[in-house]
């Protein structure tokens, strides 16, 4: 039976220079079109595209929105292929995200969280 991996919460800077892996990132939309957007999380900027989302979905996302994106990082072409993009309305989402990342890294280093194993 194949192993299932959860998308790992991380900063954009952690994706740069790595090979393909599942990830969960959050950040501010700095530019967008009908087919892709650029997301800045404060550590780096990444292009985000999705073949699963409609152009209407991308049109609902606006510059300046804080969004949650899950999907696969394509390191060779420096693009994030998303499975999900969701605008977040909670004004505390950005601060809470930092805490979530730190929590994940802490447990990952200790090796006590089974869902955070690298691919």
From TrEMBL:
<dbReference type="GO" id="GO:0033045">
    <property type="term" value="P:regulation of sister chromatid segregation"/>
</dbReference>
<dbReference type="GO" id="GO:0006281">
    <property type="term" value="P:DNA repair"/>
</dbReference>
<dbReference type="InterPro" id="IPR012340">
    <property type="entry name" value="NA-bd_OB-fold"/>
</dbReference>
<dbReference type="GO" id="GO:0005829">
    <property type="term" value="C:cytosol"/>
</dbReference>
<protein>
    <recommendedName>
        <fullName>OB domain-containing protein</fullName>
    </recommendedName>
</protein>
<dbReference type="GO" id="GO:0016607">
    <property type="term" value="C:nuclear speck"/>
</dbReference>
<dbReference type="Pfam" id="PF16100">
    <property type="entry name" value="RMI2"/>
</dbReference>
<dbReference type="GO" id="GO:2000042">
    <property type="term" value="P:negative regulation of double-strand break repair via homologous recombination"/>
</dbReference>
<dbReference type="InterPro" id="IPR032245">
    <property type="entry name" value="RMI2"/>
</dbReference>
<dbReference type="GO" id="GO:0043007">
    <property type="term" value="P:maintenance of rDNA"/>
</dbReference>
């Amino acid at each position: 039976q194949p192993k299932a991996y959860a998308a790992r919460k991380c900063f954009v800077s952690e994706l740069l220079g790595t090979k393909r892996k599942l990830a969960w990132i959050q950040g501010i939309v700095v530019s967008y079109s009908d087919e892709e957007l650029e997301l800045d999380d404060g550590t780096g900027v990444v292009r985000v595209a999705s073949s699963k989302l409609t152009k209407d979905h991308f049109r609902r996302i606006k510059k300046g929105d804080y969004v949650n994106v899950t999907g696969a990082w394509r390191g060779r072409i420096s693009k994030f292929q998303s499975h999900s993009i969701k605008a977040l309305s909670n004004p505390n989402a950005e601060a809470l995200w930092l805490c979530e990342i730190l929590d994940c890294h802490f447990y990952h280093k200790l090796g006590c969280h089974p869902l955070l194993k690298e691919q």
